[in-house]
UniProtKB/TrEMBL annotation:
GO biological process entries: dimethylallyl diphosphate biosynthetic process; isopentenyl diphosphate biosynthetic process
CDD domains, sorted: NUDIX_IPP_Isomerase
Gene3D superfamilies hit by this protein: Nucleoside Triphosphate Pyrophosphohydrolase (3.90.79.10)
InterPro entries (UniProt xref): Idi_bact, IsopentenylPP_isomerase_typ1, NUDIX_hydrolase-like_dom_sf, NUDIX_hydrolase_dom
GO molecular function, one term: isopentenyl-diphosphate delta-isomerase activity
Name of the protein this chain belongs to: Isopentenyl-diphosphate delta-isomerase
GO CC entries: cytoplasm
Domain of life the protein comes from: Bacteria
Keywords from the named record: Cytoplasm, Isomerase, Isoprene biosynthesis, Magnesium, Manganese, Metal-binding
EC number, UniProt record: 5.3.3.2
Organism of derivation: Chitinophaga tropicalis
Amino acid sequence: MEAQVILVNDNDQQTGTMEKLEAHKKGLLHRAFSVFIFNDKGEMLLQQRALDKYHSGGLWTNSCCSHPMPGEAVDAAAHRRLYEEMGFNCDLHALFQFTYRTEFDNGLIEHEYDHVFTGTYNGNINPDPAEVNAYRFLSTDSISRLLQEQPQQFTSWFILAFPQVVKHLKAG
């Protein structure tokens, strides 16, 4: 069975489910999450998406992102995918939500109600090569500089979410 996403309205209330690729072809709003992991030095864990992902392959992004399955709580999905993609788990804290819409050159559209989580982790990382091409920890200042100099190296949702993450963390 193909992966399903949860279709939602602008208030994140479920309106149905749909096969993931179909939802991305039609650009329908669906529930998603993005996880931002930091180490004790305050550096953010970035992943470079696998080169053959259905969109944004090879681009740098936050530590983990995906969609909850129908009937799955968003926080449970965030833990599940963090382990599946990066090979570890840690405490996660909900930070904020936002909605975005991005059209890609291949005709797919990301239109997501995105739940953003943060966590701290300092242990071993064992990424799934089908999901992750590379990973690295960088300071938020270094990331800000790279976003200004080379925005084409980052996913569209990371460009939108990163400044909000930094702002929320500084506000404490």
